[in-house]
Amino acid sequence: MPGIAEIHQLLAAARAGISDAHAATTRAKLLLEQARQVITDAQAQAQPWLPPQLAQAIEGLETQLARFSTADDLLNGYQARL
After folding, report:
1. DSSP state of 47
2. CA atoms 23, 71, 73, 80: torsion sign
3. pLDDT of residue 69
4. How far apart are the first and last CA of the chain?
5. Does a structural domain hold residue 37?
6. Domain for residue 28, yes or no?
7. Residue-wise pLDDT tens digits, 30-68
8. CA 68, CA 27: separation in Å to the nearest integer?
9. Spatial contact of 66 and 25, defined as CB atoms under 8 Å apart
10. d(Cα 71, Cα 22) in Å, to the nearest integer?
11. What's the domain count of the chain?
12. By residue range, what is the domain housing residue 30?
């Protein structure tokens, strides 16, 4: 059975992983938003064509970011109760 110190260490490692995933997902979302802007600027018309997958990908990344934040909050709460 792991001791409290080991649980704290494991929680810290999990939170670090979530933080890394959050940073990578934030970067991916930024790149997709920049791609959308480049496509829009290049077309310079009233209704530029954007691939439907682009909006879906950005929405999916936003969902992942919310999940990472929720997981981090849960881990923080669990660790605070230890």
Report:
1. S
2. negative
3. 95
4. 15
5. yes
6. yes
7. 999 999 998 888 877 767 778 889 999 999 999 999 999
8. 14
9. no
10. 11
11. 1
12. 22-42+49-82
Residue 9 tokens, joined: 């260490």
Is residue 29 within 8 A of residue 58, CB to CB? The reply is: yes
Residue 35 covered by a domain:
yes
Residue 12 lies in a domain: no
Cβ density class 50-70: b for 16+ within 10 Å, e for less: eeeeeeebbeebeebbeebee
Between the alpha carbon of residue 80 and those of residues 8, 71, 76, the distances in Å are 10, 14, 6
CB neighbours of 11 closer than 8 A, spacing ≥ 6?
A: 75, 78, 79
CA gap 54, 71 in Å, rounded: 26
Q: What is the pTM of this model?
A: 0.73
The tokens for 12 are 């810290």
User: Alpha-carbon distance 43 to 40, whole Å?
Assistant: 5
pLDDT recorded at residue 1: 67
